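Hi Y.,

Following your request, here is the sequence exactly as I used it, all 354 residues.
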Amino acid sequence: MTFETYFRGTRAKLLADLRDLLGRKRERLAARRPWGSDVLRRLGEFSRRGKLIRGGLVCLGYEMTGRRLSGAAVRAGTALELMQSALLIHDDIMDLDAFRRGAPALHRQYAEMGGREAVGDADHFGVSMGICAGEIAIFLAFEALAGLPGPCRRTVEAQKLFAAEFGLVGLGQMRDIQTGASPRLIEAREALDLYRFKTARYSFALPLAMGWILGGGAPSVRPKLERLGEHLGLIFQIKDDELGLFGDEAVLGKPVGSDIRQGKKTLLYLRLVEKAGEKERRTLAGLFGRPDLTAGDVEVVRRLARRHAVVDDIRAIMRRYGRRAGTAIRTLPVAAPFREVLETLLEFSLERRS
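Below is the corresponding structure, written out as tokens. Let me know if you'd prefer a different format.
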């Protein structure tokens, strides 16, 4: 069974559960005019446009214990997807990104509304409303987790892991902002550590572990799942670096060059600075961190990256983590069809275009 087949099934279940969850909240929040129904509609649309991989991994972790997929696992996956939506909404504000998932970012939707209604500062209105919408998504996620059916010991353990991991995500985001704002370069190992806690753990290690916990899986296997999740998550984030410079905007659903505009110290950037000549470094220093970056500026960085073959370098790093992930998958004590799902997910992560 491929990951595409498996995730197609979990996606349908997650979407149905998301509709149910938001529908139940709408009954209560509709009276909180004018924003109750509005924000639930926007959060639903935003979440549905995602890949729902994290929610699917919760379901996979649960089924790997040998149990049939339960409503508790699906609802935990929905909670994780709502939290992912919140992080992306806030991320777009911090990164000044205007598009996400093929549509205007949520704060830009509210800014456009503010412009139509002639508020004093439409952009500030949009940012403020976007922050509020992200906060609502966070609390909806925790409310969804608080009502999980199942043995109390398992649900509490999953809830505690969820909260603890997202605390680390916040610290990872702070580190990302700091390194982007500072002219100081960081070591590659520091960048990988940032990736690990900002993205990799919550995107892959956390959902697999949560599903495993909820399904009553053997505690001795959980560290293996989390290490596998870290490997997969690092591959995913490093691939994001590549797509952020060389991806197709129509496929990505957002503009390329955001990492350059924010001056982010990605592995790709660190490798490029390391291999560039002195004059090229001055050119890069003048481009990274520029909020008014143009398409021509992005092309300059692309040409330098091609000249120095830095994509080959970061793909070599991805393949290294791919080998580690492959070994971890082969040694997992789970049924063969689930190992096939993970193996095809690994292949997709290495080669994806969006």
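The chain is about 75% helix and 0% strand.

Thanks again,
Q.
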